[in-house]
Specification:
single chain, alpha/beta, six-stranded antiparallel beta sheet, 30 helices, 15 strands, globular
């Protein structure tokens, strides 16, 4: 992440800014003035240094300040909500990451004040603006009031106006969000937007006279100092809202112990059976740890944790509204882990629903005071630090069952089945809601009374259905066309994490662009499901517990598997179509920017795919399985390949004909199968390389038809690139002659170059497609440099260097860091290029040492980053180790050609790799950063090619 300039040593600093909360009185907004801090701008190129000499038009000065902020291209983070506690970002953090409208307004107001202008921080509902006096002839009396036609109340520097009839007077309203990346409005457009907001008839408009409050000198409005980087909080997002926590007296001692543990920081594991309230306890614990800020992540396995981490980082950076490539979730997950590891200040992260063993999940590691990880799990192995060294510094607590005396706090009836409900607050609360909503108690139905707590959710759902059949107020849920039934079924087959009403509206619509449930109907349906005890619907997100998901799924399969399959299949088709990269970003629906924004538990993919095969028509089954495969491909390529195979089997005898969309989907399935073979080291269980080449050729031919549109052309071009990559892989097969290898590489070159040119034309030179094309060409050039007799190696290596440098620059700019596999792989490529320059080019000893030194530095950087990633990819670590070993051996005798290095590099790198595998398991293997190359065999430390000739 880019960093701001270091402030001078004599500038006062603080550890963090306090959170802002206006309270219930008008005067509470006066505290906003403290965040309008000119000292906090120190070190940023945002202040007009000659402003005190300015004698021109104030409007022109205001424009210059706005353009200076616009030049920063800061992302807009839509996280602020009026009336709640807010952690305000300071200008240095905004400069390096993102800002809410309030953050940006406060920073811009400071810029205005530093320039001698009179800003008013203006809050309208959940939005904020800056009002500025721009009349150069205004009197002191006029300047002491906001530049609007009227205001109705005043309290200690804060003016209140009612929006109806409110107009600007001798001033300018700036919608500062217009300066953000993605908005990029001109100054005139930002002013027009500000005026529209101000005159839009908002009920309450609060205007804070910053200059007057600073002149007042009171402690509660004094400008806050700079925030020290080493103590700044890592997370500014607030924890998601949860239902009201019930303080059961029987758990008072347990909660007190947990609060003491949380105060000390570290990792706390909460374990116990499903429904006992682990997630609620974890949320309560986290909410009191870091001013209500933190991440609440689904961590059922490593892939789900990666997805949740990626989403959290994307939201933290304010990038949620931007279209992203399918790999970005993994990239941002790595950035999230980097954020936590580098933070010196406090943070809190909850890892919810952890099902896997401790060895299968890589946790964030709190290392400083105020840093807390809370794990919730049903897996008892997490309570065994002796058996799992990674848990040595954790504290495990079993969540106790409720006392029988606690039941009346929620369900005050005499015949409640204490033996089934006493330990499970989830079931207790659901039973109480059901009884209140329908007048029915599931335990009073003899045929449905369960034998153990695990069967209670099924009894509750059966009672809801029976109540519906009897015409009770729950509504006739036996009718699958009704919104409540559809919503419950859909949520049962989707992730258990929070789902927005917008996403669920899309899910239950008949077709993406066709008629379906209206948003207000979905919202009302969710409220009714909440009243029945089946879901939680808080903070605008709906969640169905996994116990209820299982009950609804099982009931649906027994009730009518075909109808359930049709409904769930429609969901995945809708999501795929609405989020497909083939749609323009501004037409995508439900806040999803890529298909991979929908994260499915990989363990459920097989059962969902099996369900989708029950659809009565081949076309529906094919489209649904294709959609599911694409949705999960990044998370689990093997599971996606199963979906693609099942999809192709259902449509094997169906001609695509003139249906372009069907041809593209078929091509997607074939290319997806080929991709898995290409990415699988050794022999793939899905087929041979020749099988995959056949699939890639068929995928291209399906879409390379006369009159093909852009989407078909792009699908054909991607299939052609996969064909080229597979041919290149085949060229690396053992046993080929030099001539055979060269012929295959030439064939791959033709395919990859044609695909790269076509994809750049179709998607733009900075697109992810063009990015990947150049990266593929770089690797091909390195291969050709080793076998091409017609061109000197330098020509190929120069081309490879150019491609790697271009992709490195593009990706580093896109992600803001090199500490990612997608970026560092280019650095590793540069190491390879420099190694082969030393091995293959006809240069003298000094130049050879220079190339090897460059190779060593690049390889060492790549190895250092790859080994320290949140989820190290061992094959990639091995590649960097291999280059280090080759470079070290080549350096042993730099006077001679280094071709012999390759013969012994395998043994040397295997030794290094064995060390890595043995010692990385307990965290002992690390690669230290170094200004000079590390001292490896044959390379004296601190030696450079310019200082000493090789001997």
């Amino acid at each position: 992440m880019p960093t701001s300039a270091k402030p001078p040593d004599d500038v006062p600093t603080v550890t963090k800014w306090p959170p802002f909360h206006p309270g219930s009185v008008l005067g509470g907004y006066r505290r906003l003035a403290r965040y309008v801090s000119v000292p906090a701008l120190t070190g940023l190129d945002l202040v007009e240094h000659e402003a005190h000499k300015w004698r021109g038009d104030p409007q022109e000065l205001l424009k210059r300040l706005y353009e200076r902020l616009r030049h920063k291209r800061i992302p807009y983070n839509q996280a602020w909500s009026a009336g709640t506690h807010q952690r305000v970002r300071d200008p240095h953090l905004i400069d390096r990451s993102s800002g809410t409208c309030l953050d940006l307004v406060l920073m811009f107001a400071a810029m205005c004040e530093a320039a001698g202008l009179r800003p008013y921080v203006t809050v309208l509902g959940d939005h904020a603006l800056v009002l500025v006096h721009t009349d150069p002839d205004a009197t002191p009396g006029q300047l002491s009031e906001p530049p609007v036609t009227s205001w109705h109340d005043h309290d200690r520097g804060v003016f209140l106006a009612y929006g109806e009839g409110l107009r600007l007077r001798a001033g300018t309203a700036i919608d500062v969000v217009g300066a953000c990346r993605g908005e990029d409005r001109t100054f005139a457009e930002a002013c027009a937007s500000g005026a529209r907001w101000l005159e839009s008839g908002q009920d309450d408009v609060r205007m804070v006279d910053v200059v007057a409050l600073h002149a007042e000198g009171s402690e509660d409005v004094a400008e806050l100092p700079l925030v020290r980087d080493e103590s700044r909080p890592a997370i500014y997002r607030r924890l998601p809202a949860r239902p009201q926590f019930v303080d059961f007296p029987g758990r008072d001692k347990f909660m007190a112990e947990l609060r003491d543990l949380a105060a000390r920081g570290g990792t706390v594991v909460l374990h116990g059976p499903q429904g006992i309230g682990k997630s609620m306890v974890a949320h309560r614990l986290a909410a009191g740890a870091d001013e209500g800020c933190g991440w609440f992540l689904d961590a059922s396995d490593q892939r789900m944790l990666t997805a949740s981490l990626g989403d959290a980082e994307i939201e933290e950076r304010g990038l949620g509204g931007e279209a992203r490539d399918d790999s970005d979730r993994t990239v941002f997950a790595a950035l999230a882990m980097e954020r936590l590891a580098d933070a010196n200040g406090p943070w809190v992260v909850v890892l919810d629903n952890v099902d896997v063993d401790p060895t299968e999940l890589r946790l964030p590691r709190p290392g400083r005071p105020g840093q807390l990880v809370v794990v919730t799990t049903t897996n008892a192995k997490w309570a065994d630090p002796e058996g799992y060294p990674a848990l040595r510094n954790t504290c495990a607590k079993e969540v106790p069952e409720l006392d029988a005396d606690d039941l009346p706090h929620v369900l005050d009836v005499t015949d409640a089945p204490t033996e089934l409900l006493a330990g499970r607050p989830l079931l207790l609360e659901a039973s109480a809601r059901l009884l209140q909503a329908t007048g029915r108690a599931w335990w009073r139905h003899p045929a449905a009374r369960p034998a153990d707590p695990g069967q209670v959710p099924a009894a509750i759902w059966s009672t809801v259905v029976r109540a519906a059949d009897a015409g009770a107020p729950a509504g006739p849920l036996h009718d699958p066309a009704l919104i409540e039934r559809r919503l419950a079924t859909v949520m049962a087959w989707l992730p258990p994490s929070g789902l927005s009403p917008e996403l669920l509206t899309l899910a239950v619509s008949g077709e993406v662009s066709g008629p379906g449930a209206r948003p207000e109907e979905v919202h009302a349906g969710l409220e009714r499901l909440r009243a029945l005890g089946l879901i939680e619907f808080t903070g605008g997100l709906a969640t169905m517990h996994r116990l209820f998901q299982h009950a609804v799924r099982e009931h649906g399969l027994r009730w009518n598997a075909a109808d359930t399959a049709a409904l769930v299949g429609g969901v995945h088709r809708n999501f795929f179509t609405a989020t497909s990269a083939r749609q323009p970003a501004d037409t995508r629906r439900a806040g999803l920017s890529t298909p991979f924004d929908l994260v499915l538990d990989p363990r459920q993919v097989g059962s969902v795919a099996d369900l989708l095969t029950h659809q009565p028509t081949d076309l529906d089954a094919f489209r649904s399985l294709h959609a599911l495969g694409v949705l999960v491909e990044r998370q689990d390529p093997a599971a996606a390949t199963e979906c693609f195979q099942k999809a192709l089997e259902r449509i094997a005898h169906h001609e695509a004909g003139a249906d372009a969309e069907l041809r593209i989907m078929r091509s997607d399935c074939l290319r997806g199968k080929a991709r898995v073979v290409h990415r699988t080291p050794g022999r793939s269980p899905w087929g041979t390389v020749d099988d995959a080449i056949g699939w890639a050729i068929e995928a291209r031919e399906l879409c390379a038809v006369p009159g093909a549109g852009r989407d078909e052309q792009l699908a054909a071009s991607r299939a052609e690139a996969m064909h080229g990559l597979l041919i290149r892989r085949k060229a690396n097969t053992d046993g080929l002659t030099a001539g055979q290898r060269l012929a295959l590489l030439r064939e791959a070159e033709v395919l990859l170059r044609h695909s790269a040119a076509e994809r750049e034309l179709l998607t733009g030179e900075d697109s992810p497609d063009a990015d990947r094309s150049r990266f593929n060409l770089a690797g091909l050039e390195v291969s050709l440099a080793q076998v091409d007799p017609d061109l000197p190696p330098q020509r190929h290596l120069d081309a490879a260097d150019e491609h790697y440098q271009a992709v490195l620059t593009l990706r580093e700019r896109r992600y803001g860091t090199r500490h990612l596999e997608e970026v560092i792989t280019c650095v590793n490529g540069l190491a390879l290029v420099n190694f082969y320059r030393a091995v293959l080019q006809d240069v003298g000893p000094a130049q050879r040492v220079t190339f090897l030194t460059h190779a060593l530095r690049f390889a060492h950087e790549a190895l250092e980053v790859r080994q320290s990633l949140a989820i190290p990819i061992e094959l990639n670590v091995m590649k960097s180790l291999d280059i280090l070993a080759k470079t070290a051996l080549a350096r042993l005798d730099a006077r001679q050609p280094a071709a012999h290095a390759g013969e012994t590099a395998g043994a040397a790198s295997e030794k290094l790799y064995t060390t890595y595998r043995r010692e990385s398991a307990d965290g002992r293997f690390t690669v230290r950063p170094a200004a000079e190359p590390p001292c490896l065999p044959g390379i004296p430390a601190q030696q450079s090619a310019q200082e000493k000739e090789p001997s």
